[in-house]
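Journal club prep, shared notes

We agreed each person brings one worked example of a sequence with its structure written out as tokens. Mine is Kinase. I'm keeping it raw so we can talk through how to read the token line rather than staring at a rendered picture. Sequence first:
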Amino acid sequence: MVGQSPAEPRAAVLLQPFVHQVGGHTSMLTYDEHTICKPLVSQELSFYESLPLAMRQFTPQYKGIVSVHLKKDSLGNLTLIASPGLGQPDSCGRLDSAGGDPAVTLWHKRKWSHTQVTKTFKDSCPGKMLLRTDLQYHTDSLLEDANGKQPERKSYNPWGLHCHRQHLNRMSSKHNENKLHQFLLLENVVSKYSYPCILDLKMGTRQHGDDASEEKKARHIKKCEQSTSASLGVRICGMQVYQADTGHFLCKDKYYGRKLSPEGFRQTLRQFLCNGNQLRTDLLEPIILRLRALLAVIRKQSSYRFYSSSLLIIYDGQEHKESADQHLPFPKTHGTNPSRVDVRMIDFAHTTFKGSKSNPNPTQYDGPDHGYIFGLENLIKILQSLLEGK
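Then the structure, token by token:
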């Protein structure tokens, strides 16, 4: 990886919301086809810079740091601009992806036009139009109906736009346009999928970091106690599943996940593997194998505590059928694991470990993260029961 020369700065990149963000509260932004970016948190940067080799296949690739600033147009609409090479530390400019400047779409603070939403989804999901012609973005699309239920069918996932609008509002109220903000550049782990089905799971029995205030600590403890975080060590934070029968994504957010009982969690896990026509039982074994491989790695990580981190389970909603004569085998990526499924850990802003650069004197923990292990073991058990048809 080669850094940019000061004499040859990369062109400024207009950032757009990452349309496949299904959970979290931080705005994830698309930098290019294979790269996303998010606001830099020193604790997360420290984690990526000292990542154990065994964990690298289970985390997004860290690609460096980029400077970002707000820009307001003549109508008062806000956008975020990334300026590679501008006021950067030595780690900037570490981009592997080749090619010219990405095609970008303007996303405005106050208005999200049908044309813009359509273009972004067509670029992100080639091959088929996912949107109805009457699509518009409204914040109330995240709300429940009068019966306390979320709409089952959605033609797009509004969560990323919801987070992005909140993020722009926060930035514009606190900072002027010229202020540079540091953002992490990370691998877009769903870029190879045509119709990425994503399950975002908040892992562990504890969600607050060591630096949390007493108020925040109490709030997170209550959320865990009232959800499957306490009983299973895992809860659903977001989901999108491509429905082959309708051509739309079915979406669920973190508020839905918090209300689930252990049985409701199991049923939603089953729903995540259902494409509208059938249960994708062919995906269960490769997902379980990958989770078991992750479990073996986590058990060996002494002093790490992955508080408030998430685990993504990903597969392609576009089913690739194997021919009877085996002329079209699935491509292999991780040993026996077909590339059509993936499992990745994300969000390490509250991860603590011995030797952290951002926190030289962290709370010392011995042994592996047992809350995380508890969640992984229960997740594997539930998937195993689905595989066995129970």
